[in-house]
Amino acid sequence: MLDGAFSPNQRLDQARRLGDEIERPDDITLGQDGALYVSTGNRILRCTGDDFNTRTAFATLDGPVGGLGCTPDGRMLACVSGLGLVALSPTGEIIGKLESVGGEKIACPLSVTVAPDGAIYLTDGSRNNRPELWLTDLMQNRAPSGRLIVCNSSLGGASVRADKLAWPLGVVVSGDGKEVWVAESWAHRLTAFSRAGDDRRVIVKNHTGYPARLARGANGEIWMAFLALRTQLTEFVLRERAFCEEMMRTVPPELWIGPALDGRLNPREPTQIGRIKKLGIQKPWAPPRSYGLVARLDARGAATETLHSRVDGRVHGITAVRPIGSHVLAVSKGRDCLVELPPGRGMQEG
Q1: Contacts of 180 (CB under 8 A, 6+ apart)
Q2: What confidence tens digit (pLDDT) does each residue in 42-68 have?
Q3: Any stretches that span the bilayer, and where are they (predicted)?
Q4: Is residue 289 one of the residues assigned to a domain?
């Protein structure tokens, strides 16, 4: 249910598009050189200039690139499907790798963050599927097998901090530096892990959507992206295992009854999802196949404001959001764009 701080609006559709399209952007981070780095396919783009529209290839890797991070000494950290965590020099050469931990390969790296003391936290989404098979992982509805991994600044001394996580797509160190917050997409919750011990606590459970990447803002705030909204129909299909498994065997994945990053109309997609139209106009309140949602959280994890792109909107499938100075940027993987969010409460223009 969308109410309270999550009440629907159209503010995400008011976001300003920055530059030309970027094909399927997945994450963004600010480098020590002041450039914006964007993961797209097997590449990382370096973006500079007005609206970050001067774009050059920073690195091309041997698998799809997802989560990005940057160390204080200027190294770029990249989550590479099937390969683990890769460290890149300021000129784009591979200078380090973290490929396994505890004897198990890191095949599904999703997100990475660097703590103030230099420790690196990495999430491994699943032991069963790679990042590009996120929808398959959701619909299989297996026991959670994701991990939170910690290593030192040289990618050494890696250990598993937490196991059995449900597709941990987002990770960030809290504003006070004492906890690591993890967004578990398939469990619809935000969980905090103590950096000093084994304590964990659930910050928010039963989110209305599938939480994605996290980024730290000013004054202890956290920004959180959402892949899509949950629907009653998808929840029903996930419970009806015989139907769901037959659907996965016999129907192309883009036509499964489930969330999508890009809900532009396909005449063959499942009509049960909703798609309520009248006089050729798609209604914003129709049950969503895809959706755009970003939330701003206070230091306790409570939402203070949200920005929506509803069913009829044009900024769907938000996989990452990141404050850059007085601005907040996000990537719409569903609509191939980099956007700047409109100013809101406590956000300065300029």
Answers
A1: 113, 115, 121, 148, 161, 171, 172, 173, 174, 192, 193, 195
A2: 999 999 999 999 999 999 999 999 999
A3: none
A4: yes
Decide: residue 333, CB within 10 A, 0-12 exposed, 13-18 middle, 19+ buried.
Answer: buried
For residue 57, being part of any structural domain is answered with yes
Tell me if 350 is assigned to some domain. Answer: no
pLDDT at 272 over 50: no
Alpha helices in the chain (DSSP H): 134-140, 232-239, 241-250
| Number of independent structural domains in the chain | 1
Q: Calculate mean pLDDT across residues 318-327.
A: 96
In a domain, 165, yes or no: yes
Terminal-to-terminal C-alpha distance of the chain: 34
CB 85 within 8 A of CB 122: yes
Q: Which residue has the higher pLDDT, 346 or 121?
A: 121
90 CB contacts (<8 Å, ≥6 apart)?
Answer: 31, 32, 33, 74, 75, 76
Q: Predicted confidence band at 350 (pLDDT cuts at 50, 70, 90)?
A: very low
Give the C-alpha separation, 32 to 272, whole Å: 48
Q: 190-241 pLDDT, tens per residue?
A: 999 999 989 999 999 999 999 999 999 988 999 999 999 999 999 999 999 9
Tokens 């491994």 sit at which residue?
Answer: 124
Sign of the CA dihedral running 239, 241, 242, 248: positive
| Interatomic CA distance for residues 289 and 234, integer angstroms | 10
Q: What is the CATH number of the domain that holds 228?
A: 2.120.10.30
The boundaries of the domain holding residue 207 are 4-340
